[in-house]
Structures are given as structure tokens and as C-alpha cells.
Specification:
The protein has a two-stranded antiparallel sheet. Helix 2 runs antiparallel to helix 3. The protein is built from five helices and two strands; from the N terminus they run ββααααα. It is mainly alpha-helical. Helices cover 71% and strands 6% of the residues. It is elongated, with a radius of gyration of 24 Å. The longest helix is centred in the C-terminal third of the chain and has 29 residues.
Length: 136
């Protein structure tokens, strides 16, 4: 039986790998890079490839570097796309917290204030509309 832990898969054409956690992954977890560290390392690698491309004059080497850059960017984009669900979950938790705080703490205080909420509502509706139009 294979020993449980974190297994690293090297993705061709890039400095970034992916990890698959298994039950005893926490034992070696401290030695692994975070998702942010991996993305930053990949950004650095691609930046270095672009610099090398710009400094190279040999067409054969430029062609080889261009293919490597394209491959690295394709893999990077795919990994980020696959990780999109995690990003959306974090954003969702943030928004839920914001809504709860606003509705349970701020709204009651605003209702008790002397603000003209109808006039404020009209100004807010206009601002919402202006911002939505500006985004299109």
C-alpha cells in the first residue's frame, strides 16, 4: 500500500505543480508551498522566459522559447481556472459576512437616525444606474 501524503505532479513546461492531498498530508504540509507561493513562482518563471526571449537573437531559440512561454501560460491559465471555485467560495463567504453585518448592525442604526431614507434611496438608485451604465 502506498504511503499517504502529498503527491506533487510536475506540469510540463512550467515551474508549477499541483498537489493532491491524502489523509496524512498534514505531516509534510509545512514543507509545501502555498497556492499563492506557487502562483508567484510561476509568474516569476514566465517573466524570466519573456526576458530570455527578448534578449535572444537566434530565431531557433526564440521559437523554442515562444513555445515554452505559450505552454507555461496555457497550463497556468488552466490551473487558475480550475481553482476558480475556491476563489468564488472565499468571495461568497466575504459577501455573506458583509451582508449580515450591514443588515443586522448598520441598517437598524440608520433607521433610527434622522436621515431622509427616501431621498437617500433616490440618490443611491441614480448612482447604481450610472455605475451600471458606465460598466457597459
Amino acid at each position: 500500500m502506498a504511503k499517504a501524503g502529498i503527491h506533487r505532479i510536475r506540469l510540463k513546461g512550467t515551474a508549477m505543480g499541483t498537489t493532491a492531498k491524502t489523509p496524512s498530508a498534514s505531516k509534510s504540509h509545512a514543507k509545501e508551498k502555498s497556492a499563492i507561493d506557487l502562483l508567484k513562482a510561476d509568474h516569476k518563471k514566465v517573466t524570466e522566459l519573456f526576458s530570455e526571449y527578448e534578449q535572444t537573437h537566434a530565431m531557433g531559440k526564440k521559437k523554442e522559447l515562444a513555445a515554452e512561454i505559450c505552454s507555461a501560460l496555457t497550463v497556468h491559465a488552466q490551473v487558475e481556472e480550475e481553482m476558480y471555485d475556491a476563489k468564488v467560495k472565499v468571495l461568497s463567504e466575504y459577501v455573506k459576512h458583509h451582508v449580515k453585518e450591514e443588515e443586522s448592525e448598520m441598517f437598524p442604526k440608520i433607521k433610527q437616525s434622522s436621515l431622509d431614507l427616501v431621498e437617500l434611496g433616490a440618490r443611491m438608485a441614480e448612482r447604481f444606474e450610472n455605475l451600471r451604465v458606465a460598466r457597459h
